[in-house]
Amino acid sequence: MARAVPKGSKGPQGGSKASLEARKARAAKVLAVMEQLYPQATTELSHANPFELLVATVLSAQATDASVNKATPALFQRYPDAFALAQARPEEVEPYIKTIGLYRSKARNLVRLAQKLVEKHGGQVPKDKARLQELPGVGWKTATVVLGAAFGVPGIAVDTHLTRLARRLGLSEARTPEKMGAELEELFPKEKWVYVHHALILFGRYRCTARRPKCQDCPLYAECLSKGAW
Ligand code: SF4
User: Fold this and answer.
1) Res 16: pLDDT
2) pLDDT score for 63
3) What are the φ and ψ backbone dihedral angles of 215, each rounded to 5 degrees?
4) Which of 65, 72, 169, 178 has a Cα at 20 to 30 A from 158?
5) Atom 8 of ligand 1 has which residue's CA nearest to it?
């Protein structure tokens, strides 16, 4: 049974209306809870190297990590690196990823991405956000995720889970992922940025879901601006 919350209760002031100091205090509580719940939080995308992580992250756009993980073992066996994938035609890649949404455009992007990696980066994944973003199918979020998970470059990539949680927890009300990422980075210690991204995704995926979040006994209940809304 969900805890009773008075109707109309707005909870503590949050988002951009709260002072930076207040939001930092809130972020500290969120971080402490995440470290309790998910001490080892990391990406759930299976990968063995930066190339595989880049491909898996491109595939994960508008798809679940689980669906990507089902497809990638055979894909990576057939195309183990950028050189192999660069030689493929998109129609040859499609059967490996057809269980994933938008597979036709993703197959095209992956082949072009591999060709660019070979042409411009010696087949390696660049450790530079601007260069990553020049690759087909790679935007700010994918570049930030790959830099963090593959190379440990600090950054908070914002996806739908982080957007929802940042608002519910009064951390940021920014309207673009880039702006929200910058606002979140102000609130958490730099060495925790990559961790915070992964931990909040797990919290959003398994507990604070978009519909029917598991508010009962939520360790962030006291901090939440949305408690009692369901
Ligand atoms: S109380 Fe509910 S809405 Fe708020 S953070 Fe917890 S699970 Fe999410």
Assistant:
1) 52
2) 93
3) -75, -25
4) 72
5) 208
Please give the pLDDT value at position 227.
84
> Rounded to the nearest whole angstrom, what is the distance from the C-alpha of residue 220 to the centroid of ligand 1?
6
Asked if residue 128 belongs to a known ligand binding site, the reply is: no
Instruction: State the Cα torsion 147-149-155-156 to the nearest 10°.
Output: 130
Q: State pTM to two decimals.
A: 0.88
Residue with tokens 């036709």: 104
CB of residue 208 inside a 6 A radius of ligand 1: yes
Inter-axis angle of helices 177-187 and 20-37, nearest 10? 90
Taking the C-alpha atoms of residue 142 and residue 159, their distance in angstroms, rounded to an integer, is 10
Domains in the chain: ranges and CATH: 15-35+155-223 (1.10.1670.10), 50-151 (1.10.340.30)
3-state secondary structure 97-156: HCCCCCHHHHHHHHHHHHHHHHHHHCCCCCCCHHHHHCCCCCCHHHHHHHHHHHHCCCCC
118 is in an annotated binding site: no
Q: Is 218 in the pocket of ligand 1 (CB under 6 A)?
A: yes
Mean pLDDT of 140-157: 97
**pLDDT for 125 beyond 60:** yes
Positions marked catalytic: 141, 159
Residues whose CB falls within 8 Å of the CB of residue 152, separated by 6 or more in sequence, listed in order = 194
Q: Which atom number of ligand 1 is nearest to the Cα of residue 215?
A: 2
Pocket test of ligand 1: the residue of 161, 207, 230 to mutate, having most ligand atoms within 8 Å of its CB, is 207
